[in-house]
Amino acid sequence: MLLYDHVCTDWGGALVAMDEKGVKLVKLYEGTKAPVPIFNVWRKSPSDLKEATDQLKAYFAGELRVFDLPLSLDGTPFQIQVWNALQTIPYGETRSYMEMALSMGNDKACRAVGGANGRNPIPVIIPCHRVVGSNGSLGGYSCGLGLKRRLLAIEGVSLDSFGR
Q: For residue 10, is pLDDT > 50?
């Protein structure tokens, strides 16, 4: 059974879900159309999610730089390696997909890093939005480039070099 709650902001928010090990899923959304939990499998539990929602609210308000939450990751060994590497990118900084591959010791894994990045089930907490293209583009983002721009702006990353 997954427990869930919502974090609301002036631009949209996030659905956050956890299991007995920790945060398992974050789904970001813009506007008022929140993702719908699977009601027969998920149970709303604001008290169990309080620490996670408080930290996300603080992050969205520009008051939190590092998350301190238990995570529950399901993925291939390579995906988990990428997701762990993403957590080492400091707040307010970016890395290219190539830099991520090189930091993991495999300069040929650039596309695989991008694929694992796009399958990150816990965006923001695992900061996949901090990975950009080597060519100066924002690259992709599973939650949409508008949200990627918003998250980078929260962290004070200049978006001028990434185009609009």
A: yes
